[in-house]
Amino acid sequence: MGRFTVQHIRGGYQFGLRAGNGQNVASSRVFFTLDDCLRAVEWVRKNAGAPVTERMRALGEASADAGARYVIYRCGGGRMGFRLLDEQGEMVLLSEGYTAKRSCRMGIASIGRNAPDAPVAVGR
Fold it and tell me: S-S: 16 plus which of 9, 27, 40, 42, CB 3.0-4.6 Å?
């Protein structure tokens, strides 16, 4: 089973999702308050099974898609990553870089398996 880890960082709070094997799957953007961060964790739990936008797009490229969704994008150095976007198109989760699109899809699948029932650990 995976777990969410919430940490206080400079400027607010951030959470990460770790898979059952301890690997970091994705990290959140920074939230100003702990309550906002915990609400975002609940949102990720609810939307972990969101659809994936297949079309590769550059980071920051606008999308006409509506609703929560994962977007696979090209990172620097030829790597790829994914973002989980909310209904307004704002990034909630961001992956690390992967060498292949298949690996991105495996990371997304890991969120779908681990996030819905993952406990939350709040650190300093």
Answer: 27
